[in-house]
Amino acid sequence: MKTYTVAILGATGAVGQEMRKILEERDFPVGELRLLASARSAGREVSFRGRTVTIREATEEAFQGVDLVLGAAENDIALRFAPAIRAAGAVFVDNSSAFRLDPQVPLVVPEVNGADALKNEGIVANPNCSTIITVTAVAALNRLSPIRTMVASTYQAVSGAGTGGIAELRQQVTELEAGREVTPKVFSHQIAYNLIPQIGGEQYEGYTSEEMKLQNEGRKILHRPEMAVSCTCVRVPVVRSHSISVTLTFDRPISVEEARAAIAAAPGCRLTDDLKAGVYPMPLDTSDQDLVFVGRIRPDLTNPKGLTLWCCGDQIRKGAATNAVQIAELLFPRA
Amino acid sequence: MKTYTVAILGATGAVGQEMRKILEERDFPVGELRLLASARSAGREVSFRGRTVTIREATEEAFQGVDLVLGAAENDIALRFAPAIRAAGAVFVDNSSAFRLDPQVPLVVPEVNGADALKNEGIVANPNCSTIITVTAVAALNRLSPIRTMVASTYQAVSGAGTGGIAELRQQVTELEAGREVTPKVFSHQIAYNLIPQIGGEQYEGYTSEEMKLQNEGRKILHRPEMAVSCTCVRVPVVRSHSISVTLTFDRPISVEEARAAIAAAPGCRLTDDLKAGVYPMPLDTSDQDLVFVGRIRPDLTNPKGLTLWCCGDQIRKGAATNAVQIAELLFPRA
User: Fold this and answer.
1) Measuring CA to CA, how many Å separate A170 from each of A193, A328, B46, B178?
2) Which of B173, B282, B306 lies nearest to residue A196, judging by beta carbons?
3) What are the pLDDT digits (tens) for B240-270?
4) Cβ contacts (< 8 Å) between B301 and chain A: which residues?
5) Residue B298: which of A206, A236, A256 has the nearest Cβ?
6) Which of B205, B245, B256 is nearest residue A206 as measured by Cβ atoms?
7) Contact A123, A206 (CB under 8 A)
């Protein structure tokens, strides 16, 4: 079997660690695995397929001979190493937002627009986590009739801020249990028992950068350049699954029954929609797995061509690491 | 100074206890206070204005000589005692949903439609908690131009399920910290580190009873019988403030500047809207006080006649007890 030399850039973060786990889980044909991170982490040892792999410092030379780079680092790191990755002849599947809106770079959710990945020129971008979860949930509806507008409110887990976000929620809960005051570090305000209605800085007309991603990335992934999205992104005290309340309008009315059937058949989705039985997507049920759960599907009472629904998915897995490995599987199919 | 005999029906619950506290805080002209509850609670002693008051069993006779009854009990209790309250000649300001949509009963948020309270025939209904907070936030905009539609997603605190809801969140967090499993009792699913997208049973087209309140009660309070609302109600692991993400459309476009000015001047509201400075409504900041905080005001990118905003308010106070006492103040003005 043909195998590939794979590098993970940003291997020690929440997403980078999960990428390593998912390469192993999905039995991706890895020959050699290079785990690249900052100089500070170099020398640390982790396990992959029962063998020890030593973290190396990310340098331009580290990409020599690599076939595939999975990027789990911030924009500045992605931008810095992209030329060396290209020069090495590797494909860069990048989870940062640096290249997502570049017209030369496909932005891909495999279940939605997988074919786009094949038109790459050395870089394929992995979308924003809430965007992946939302477009996976609504793609089947967009195939029934084009989505015109989307009003979305997110309920985003602390894992979106990396391992530090998870640690901060846990620490704050412990401090409060002990009757001590908390001092926010990763988040701008206390997150335990609170909600923070800001993710990212201001970008456009009072919307944050995170809020604009659902419109700008969603248009590209769904091939709906006219789609208008009003999004409100909110950090909630949940560990690792994002939830999104979405109200959509379409070119034509779609019945709830038609929508349910389409979502039940959609790849990457699980229909969990039985209010009377207390069955609907919840963060706890969607954590540590790859499907996007969709439920609470009902008519939009404000628009006869609208529907409203609720979806959840694991932010680190389908929202980041799994989606990137799925893209890699499209690019490096098994012989 | 003229004083009144006041009864609290359901005096031992989260809202009933807060009503007692708020009567004292706002120096309502209480002569005698009767605290009524189930036989189980009768005999317990609590403090009011530094004196001890004994909880009595709620019976029909207990309302004799009462001027004002503040209702903090469930619908069945409110329905059972309403005739005796009326026969005693008292006014019943009731927090249950039993009378809210009765055309003979005013449904009142004092800052929004206070004058309606005076047209009562012995009962004034206190609205649903999320509805009070949302309509207080948007009433000033509805005065600028009629609200046509509202798409709302709520982030509702556990206090909405009473003292048992607060205790359950705290207990689950403690159990999980200790590595033990949790068994939900008050809520249908674990609420710690989770979200439950169901409050109330199914009522209409897949919407829950709680979700339909914002449309049905909102129409009556705002005097907009045609207003259409699509609401998604979600329980979140927050203690006692509800938050609502609201997207509104109006008869005419309203600029963000005009909306901010109107909300800054609106009674019962505090404008907290400076994204660059990290200033916006958050549950922790709005707990234990009476104002509804409004922020994140921005254009609706899906509709030129739309706006979107985020608001928070204390569910037990403005969402229930304070609003009821404010209604009582309209009915029993100081001489």
Assistant:
1) 11, 33, 37, 12
2) B282
3) 999 999 999 999 999 999 999 999 999 999 9
4) 205, 207, 215, 228-230
5) A206
6) B256
7) no
Side-chain half-sphere exposure of B257, counting CA atoms within 13 A: 0
How does pLDDT run across A199-226, given as a tens digit for each residue?
999 999 999 999 999 999 999 999 999 9
Contact of A174 with chain B, judged by CB distance below 8 Å, is answered with yes
User: Which are the contacts of A314, defined by CB distance < 8 A and separation ≥ 6?
Assistant: A240, A241, A286, A287, A288, A289, A290, A322
Contact map slice: B 288-327 vs A, CB within 8 A:
295-303, 306, 308, 310, 312
pLDDT tens digit string along B42-69? Answer: 999 999 999 999 999 999 999 999 999 9
- Confidence (pLDDT) at B1: 83
Catalytic pick from B189, B223, B233, B242?
A: B242
Q: Which helix (H) or strand (E) holds B35?
A: strand B30-37
Residues of A in contact with B257 (CB under 8 A): none
User: Do A219 and A128 meet the contact criterion of CB atoms below 8 Å apart?
Assistant: no
Tell whether B50 lies on the interface with A, counting CB pairs under 8 A: no
d(CA B151, CA B256): 18
Distance CA B14, CA B36 (A): 14
- Give dist(CA B247, CA B259) in Å, integer: 13
Angle at A30 between CA A29 and CA A32, to 5 degrees: 155
How close, in Å, is residue B229 to chain A by CA atoms? 6
Looking at the DSSP bridge assignments, the partners of residue B247 are B151, B308
How far away is chain B from the Cα of A275, in angstroms, using its nearest Cα? 7
Return the HEC string of chain A: CCCEEEEEECCCCHHHHHHHHHHHHCCCCEEEEEEEECHHHCCCEEEECCEEEECEECCHHHHCCCCEEEECCCHHHHHHHHHHHHHCCCEEEECCCCCCCCCCCCECCHHHHHHHHHHCCCEEECCCHHHHHHHHHHHHHHHHCCEEEEEEEEEECHHHHCHHHHHHHHHHHHHHHCCCCCCCCCCCCCCCCCCECCCCCEEECCEEHHHHHHHHHHHHHHCCCCCEEEEECCECCCCCEEEEEEEEEECCCCCHHHHHHHHHCCCCEEECCEHHHCECCCHHHHCCCCCEEEEEEEECCCCCCEEEEEEEEECCHHHHHHHHHHHHHHHCCCC
pLDDT tens digit sequence for A181-196: 999 999 999 999 999 9
ipTM of the complex: 0.96
CA distance A114 to chain B (A): 28
The region, left, alpha or beta by phi > 0 then psi within -120 to 50, assigned to residue B50 is: left
Do the chains contact at B188 and A278, CB–CB below 8 Å? yes
Average pLDDT, chain A: 97
Contact B16, B37 (CB under 8 A): yes
